[in-house]
């Protein structure tokens, strides 16, 4: 793990002196920062560890006479000795100019126009240097709402201006292939050395411009194991409700980054401590406070997700959202059963429906994830039924494996008394005789009573209308 930036430097003691390069300092406005340049022989970012495609983009832009840098997470993570997740390029070429240089590219976004350059499965994000708000260049505008929210940010500027428009100092380090040096306008090298996450500019203004930056603070603090600078941290609790203005689709993307990037457990804790989790999952936050097993269940699910990612095993948002929202479903089900006098299965279905529709006001959950999530939940009602054909129907259900993992999680968290999980573990391993024996030994499932001790009501079977078509046989027939 990273032990301090100085270990990458040849003369650590002289770092600040050598970094300060008065000749490259830009004269002019107060806000224009001073550049520090870390030459190639004083850092560990080597072309060998950078994406070939990203380098191609830099060379082609330079060849066409534009400035171009690698910036953001790829430089931050490389300096920390970690493998970058993706590569972002910043340039003075406009999106249209970039588009013309790369056949395999397309312009995306409205609020923030950028170009995606595709190389097979890899996408390099190319962003034009952003300038100051309120200034208009060649019809490109920025727009802010009355309370400071940045609605659009498409004003082009210089690289120095671009640096101070970024979020954290450690995310504003630029690498160029013209000199292979790292260029720093905001003190990011020092903060990287000190392992501090510091917002560039006035934190409150920057959070008001884009409240998602609060989530990014939590995410990077967790991922990098950095502390958040006190002035960067201070406004978060009070401004957290600004996240309620952010479109659910954007928050869904952020939730995936928070919880499916290998640092979910730590991210969850940082979010909860700062009052941010409640802005993403308000009902879960309440349920977590009320049901002692719920925090354990969510934390265990997140720890398992992190472990799977570390082993490069697949993870799905369906399971993640399933765990995050399950405490709400469990809290609502008995209430609905009681109020509407429903048996447990339809009561849980109704609860699931309500929980999902309320959550959709905060984060979207595309159908391709909410459907399997509901299957995982519904199978929780089937798993206790261990007699007859339905055992095999459960076992053959496409979501069985996820539902079984979910059951184990519920037992581990103390929501359920252990036992059923082990039965299913054995059942999956057993041969035919073993399975027959396990079924014979098992009790048939939940007691005949429904929730609240009321007798389970059987719906009268619907009479099938006679049709001319023969009905295909089903397992129930
Ligand atoms: P990672 O890709 O590892 O999650 P990253 O820092 O590269 O981290 P991206 O979302 O890829 O994050 O963004 C790339 C860069 O763009 C950031 O490093 C930052 O400089 C800038 N950036 C991204 N989002 C914002 C934002 N909301 N406000 C200001 N700058 C931002
Ligand atoms: Mg990135």
What report would you give on this structure?
With 477 residues, the chain is α+β, with helices and mostly antiparallel strands. It folds into two domains: 5-201, Beta Polymerase, domain 2; 280-453, Orthogonal Bundle (cca-adding enzyme, domain 2), CATH 1.10.3090. The protein has 22 helices and twelve strands. The chain has helices at 15-19, 52-63, 73-79, 95-101, 159-165, 188-194, 203-209, 212-224, 230-233, 236-239, 248-259, 264-273, 277-280, 282-290, 292-310, 317-340, 344-359, 367-382, 390-396, 400-413, 420-429, 432-441, and strands at 36-38, 68-71, 88-91, 105-108, 114-119, 122-128, 142-144, 150-153, 173-175, 182-184, 196-197, 227-228. The strands form three sheets. Strands 1-10-9-2-3-6-5-4 form an eight-stranded mixed sheet, sandwiched between helices. Strands 7-8 form a two-stranded antiparallel ribbon. It has a two-stranded parallel sheet with strand order 11-12. Strand 4 and strand 5 (114-119) form a beta hairpin. Magnesium ion binds next to loops.
Task: List the defining traits of the structure above.
477 residues, alpha+beta, Beta Polymerase, domain 2, cca-adding enzyme, domain 2, 8-stranded mixed β-sheet, disordered N terminus, binds magnesium ion
CATH architecture of the largest domain: 2-Layer Sandwich
Number of domains: 2
| Beta-strand residue fraction | 5-15%
Number of helices: 22
Bound molecules: adenosine-5'-triphosphate, magnesium ion
Stretches where pLDDT is under 50 for at least 5 consecutive residues are 1-30, 448-458, 469-477
C-alpha Rg, in Å? 27 Å
In CATH, the homologous superfamily of the largest domain goes by the name: Beta Polymerase, domain 2
Judged by helices, strands and strand pairing, the structural class is alpha+beta
Shape, principal axes of CA atoms: elongated
Number of strands: 12
